[in-house]
Amino acid sequence: MSGKPEDAAKRDIAALAAELAEQIASLAAFSGSGLAPTNAPAARSGPSPGVPSYAGPRTMLENAGRFVAPVLPAGAPLRPLKAALLRVLRIVTRDQTTFNSALLESLRGALLETEAGLRDLAAASREGAQRAEDFAKEATARLDGAVREGAQHAEDFAKEATARLDAAVADLSGLSARLDGAVADLSGLSARLDGAVADLSGLSARLARESKARESAGRDLLASQRRLDALEKDRDQRFEALARRQEREEAEKLALADRIESATEGLRALRLEWSSLRSSLRDLSGAPPSVSGEGADGARSAALRADDPLRAGLYVDFEERFRGSEKEIRARQANDAARFRGAPGPVADLGCGRGEFLEALAAEGVAAIGCDANPVMAARAKEKKLAVDQADLFAWLAGRADGSLGGVTAFQVVEHLPPASLFDLVELAIRKLAPSGRVLFETINPESVYAMRWFWMDLTHVRPVPAPSLAQLLSASGFRDVAVDFRSPVPESEGLPRGLADDPRFAPLERLLFAPQDYAVTGVK
Q: Rounded to 5, what percent of the chain is helix, strand, coil?
């Protein structure tokens, strides 16, 4: 008895599923072909016209839902017994009931999704049809415009082509006239070509003659090349002979240098022997050596005696070794000579040595005279035709007439004088200078440690004279425009390195150690 209701329920569910499948198939055929199926129920009115109605499948699903969990009517016969039996059967059919419920829910959801999809498809179909209709209208309008525009273009093109054809006809007429002119030109060109051919014939003959001339010139060039080769060979031989002669001359110079060195050594030995002999003669005679005194007499006793040629020669060597050659001194004194242009009288150079400053004055057109106690130096100055006397500078200057000199100079002299003699020299120069005459004294700068290293190299130096002291002496004696000019800078290779010399912190050290080696004081009477 319990199996019959279950079989009936299964048959009902199977029939419901078959009917639902048939409805879904009819819907699929409708959506695929775009046409409503013949056996489909009439569509109900709804919000989406053209979409098939799903009322029938929904009704069947609702009816099938009632069979998922059977319920006994209230007035069923034997209801208590059937209810008890139904509870027993639920234990057996619970899984089937669950499956049936899930299947119905899935079918209901699929049905809803299918209905929504078909509704969207119908809306898209309507929108596509509307767009197709709009596109057709727009295409028709554009085609009509294009046809009208093409007709207008064709008409314009026909007009333009007609105008161009007329112009082409006119151009062809002009071209025909130009062609006639070109034919005439070609006739003239043909005549000129005939003349050119004749000219080429003459040119060919000239080229043949020139070819022969070039052959002759080539032979002459070959002969000249041979003579040139002979001359170069002779030149090489002469150069070789000259080189050998230069080698011999170099050898002779080396031999001469050896002889000069030997003679110099012999001269040094003779000077030593002569100094020893002089000392022996002084001992034998019992005469004491000369001692420097004070004033002008002291200065004259300190100077070299004119009758002492050996010491005079030694001092010349000292000058050459420690002061410089004549050319170097003359170059250093050129600027000083320019100071005496337009002097009111001759310039007297005291202790003129070899006469370098006198030569510089002569180059400036200034009259100059000088004196030197050293007989060797005075003789050298006289050899150069300079107005130089061998004499003591005080006696010589005193012999000049008062106010007769345009300048008085003394280069590297005042350091040889004791203080009293320096005063006498300044006073004597004032007497002898003409008005506007200039005095110039140059000496070693004692404020330079570098210069003082060389001061005592000259054994005849008495004492250094500071620049402020000598300048004050001239000012106090009545000279005007007294000025100090520092000169003879220390060579860069022997001073402070460039980096330190440019540093302000080392400036005091630079002034102390490497100040200019000499200075000159000038004044005007």
A: 70, 10, 25
Helices (H), 340-403: 356-363, 375-383, 393-398
- Cβ–Cβ contacts within 10 Å for residue 84, how many? 11
Q: And the tokens for 219? A: 């032979």
Strands 480-487 and 518-524: antiparallel
Cross-sheet strand order for the sheet of 347-350: 388-390, 368-372, 347-350, 405-411, 433-444, 518-524, 480-487
Q: What is the pLDDT of residue 414?
A: 95
Contact 371, 391 (CB under 8 A): yes
DSSP reduced 3-state for 374 = coil
> pLDDT digit string (tens) for 443-458?
999 988 888 887 887 7
Superfamily of domain 295-524: Vaccinia Virus protein VP39 (3.40.50.150)
3-class state of residue 78 by DSSP: coil
* Per-residue model confidence as pLDDT tens digits over 306-334: 445 545 555 555 565 556 677 788 888 88
Which long-range contacts (C-beta less than 8 Å, at least 24 apart) are formed by 290-294? 292/418, 292/462, 294/418, 294/420, 294/421
Type of residue numbered 180: D
Report which of 474, 434, 427 is spatially closest to residue 347, judged by C-alpha positions.
434
pTM over 0.85: no
Whole-angstrom distance, CA of residue 93 vs CA of residue 10? 11
Helix axes 309-318, 79-285, angle to 10 degrees: 170
Q: Are the CB atoms for 477 and 427 separated by under 8 Å?
A: yes
In angstroms, the CA 378 to CA 376 distance is 6
The neighbour count for residue 211, using CB atoms within 10 Å, is: 10
